[in-house]
Amino acid sequence: MSFSLKANHKVVTEYYREMQKARETKQLHEGAVAPHFATLLRYCLGQSPQLTLVEQYSIKRDGRKPLRADGALVDKQTNVLLYGIWEAKDSKDKLEKEVKSKFKDGYPADNILFQSPDQVILYQHGNEAFNAPITENPEHLITSLELFLSYKPPVYEQWEEAISAFKEKVGELGQALVLIILGELKTNKAFKTAFEDFSLLCQAAINPNLAQSAVIEMLVQHLLTERLFRTIFNNPEFINKNVIAKEIEKVINALTSREFSRHDFLKSLDRFYTAIEATASTIHAYSRKQDFLNAVYENFFQGFAVKVADTHGIVYTPQPIVDFMVNSVQEILKREFNQDLSNENVHVLDPFTGTGNFILRVMQEIGANTNDLNVKAKFKHKYENELHCNEIMLLPYYIASMNIEHAYYEYMKTYSPFSGICLVDTFELAEPKQGGFNFFVPENTERVNAQKAAPIFVIIGNPPYNVGQQNENDNNKNRKYPHLDGVIEQNYAKTSKATNKNSLSDAYVKAFAWATERLQGQDKGIVAFVTNNGFLEGLAADGMRAHLESVFDKIYVLDLGGNSRKTDDDLGNVFGIRVGVSINILVKTGKK
Fold first, then answer.
1. Greater pLDDT, 421 or 56
2. SS3 string of 51-107?
3. b vs e for 541-571, b when ≥16 Cβ sit within 10 Å of the residue's Cβ?
4. Which listed residue, of 147, 321, 447, 457, carries a Cα 20 to 30 Å from 97's Cα?
């Protein structure tokens, strides 16, 4: 990156003024001087459209406790690609010694800046690139910052070019695949039979009105992305281990049974795949690979399935919100029920799991010390029996499966498939079914039935809502759920004094109605959702508010604002959308 910084700039003169004060007061310890250097870095990065500073950055090491750097330069798009490390130290005469110590500990030497009040040492490509005093020489300080901030790992240049072109190319290739599939449906009998059988499975599991185009889109999603799952996550057995991927592979095999070759067709994407895979290979922490894949995933949808992204809201819940919600549930379990997430029979369900972030955070809460045999046994039992989640879209379902299974592997050092995840429309589970449920494959159906029979105690997640909606009325109206719609009509709409009740058809309102129904008959339970906040004050939601108050004994709401139509709500939106957001925790304590 290029930036403008001169010795007479206020941010530089202020830094030296603070360092002088520190010397005079003999407050030159790391904690006192590091914040002032961080201010310098943030000022420079404020001129970058690409990079941001993450303080107290965790550097993972195999089999050992992670290292913690004072700061890291990461890209804004994925918030994970690492461009540089910054380490603050106390004094000049110890800096060289500190540098050796840090490298011995395993700090990366690709681009790392060591800084004390008196000196900077910069290593790049494993070699010392700059070493100079800075006490009375701001030019040396500026030079070190220019070198540090302009560094770009060679593989990242390839990534940046590839990811911007990938969005355009994946759309083009996706449409070409659609045409091939349509052609094969006319001439390839084996494929036509396999496709029709698969379509029936999809309609039974997801939506009885599912169009042919949506089924084709699922096949395209699988074809264009399964390689990334295999390579980025070093999971060559992915399509054999995942029960849904295995079923889709049968259809793909029928599709390619004649002259169509998957390898040859996807050859034009090789350079993009290679660049993405090469960049991913520089990321060692699995959690950061998840974030990286999320960025690739967003680009995939924006390039190929724009309407799908808009309808289902391809928006990831910020980690601080996930942390806050899981911590809050844990606190309420202890306070109200003398329980916690690790206790037996505290079943947890994320009905709209996306890439699995809420379940991963619950696992983190439970498995904090799997060296303890008691904790290990509880964690294994919870994973195998009491963690549940649903996803309706194929790609996030794949990613969530891998994320959760890998988290278990990291804790337990052994692989075990996660049988708590279902590919299913959660709202459909409230609808009565003649002859029982049949969802894709027997394994998925077994999982759905096991979840339906489970005594769910905690429902937590981020229900779907339209990422681009201008107002509450823009949300999904195409899918009807007779039973759930009847529940909303009876409990929310009927008692409302409003004339226009269109906003009650929003998906997040359905989520509240579904969750309330799911806990029906239980006198104890918790619902924790981050949603559109329109129901807090909306006229049409007066009946909804009254009903929730009558069902639940305690309701906590953290209103995060973010409504772009409110002139007094100008602090921005945590999801980058235009409707307001709130975190809502509803508790049934059994005590009115």
1. 421
2. EEEEEEEEEEECCEEEEEEEEEEEECCCCCCEEEEEEECCCHHHHHHHHHHHHHHCC
3. bbbbbebbeebbeeeeeeebbbbeeeeeeee
4. 147
At 555, give phi and psi (nearest 5°): -130, 125
| 332 and 358, same domain (yes or no) | yes
Sheet with 127-133, edge to edge strand ranges = 51-61, 64-75, 82-88, 111-115, 119-124, 127-133
pTM confidence score = 0.73
pLDDT band at 470 (very low <50, low <70, confident <90, very high): very low
Residue 212 lies in a domain: yes
Claim to verify: residue 123 and residue 193 sit in the same structural domain: no
Q: Give pLDDT tens digits for 309-350.
A: 444 444 568 888 999 999 999 999 999 999 999 999 999 999
User: Which pLDDT score is estimated for 442?
Assistant: 84
Residue 467: per-residue pLDDT: 37
Q: Is 6 helix (H, G, I), strand (E, B) or coil?
A: coil
One domain, residues 148 and 170: no
Average per-residue pLDDT in the chain?
Answer: 82
CATH number at residue 375: 3.40.50.150
Residue 461, pLDDT above cutoff 80: yes
Cβ neighbors of 267 (< 8 A, separation 6 or more) are: none
Select the more confidently predicted residue: 136 or 463.
463
Whether 265 contacts 255, CB under 8 Å: no
The answer to whether 485 and 354 are in contact (CB under 8 A) is no
- Strand 111-115, strand 119-124: pairing: antiparallel
**Is 3 domain-assigned?**
no
The domain boundary residue, chosen from 106, 127, 152:
152
3-class DSSP assignment, residue 556: strand
Domain span including residue 260: 156-304
By C-alpha distance, which of 534, 339, 517, 358 is closest to 430?
A: 517
pLDDT at 568: 58
Q: Is the pLDDT of residue 476 over 60?
A: no
Residues 165 and 142 in one domain: no
Q: From the CA atom positions of the chain, what is the Rg in Å?
A: 27
373: phi then psi, degrees, rounded to nearest 5: -60, -35
Give a yes or no: residue 314 inside a domain. no
Instruction: Report the alpha-carbon distance of residue 191 to residue 72 in Å, rounded.
Output: 50
Distances (CA, A) of 537 to 71, 93, 180, 550: 42, 62, 50, 17
Q: Which of 406, 428, 426, 427 is nearest to 417 (CA)?
A: 406
- Look at residues 347, 348, 354, 364 and name the one whose alpha carbon lies nearest to residue 316: 354
Whether residue 106 is found in the same domain as residue 221: no
Q: Are residues 300 and 363 located together in one domain of the fold?
A: no
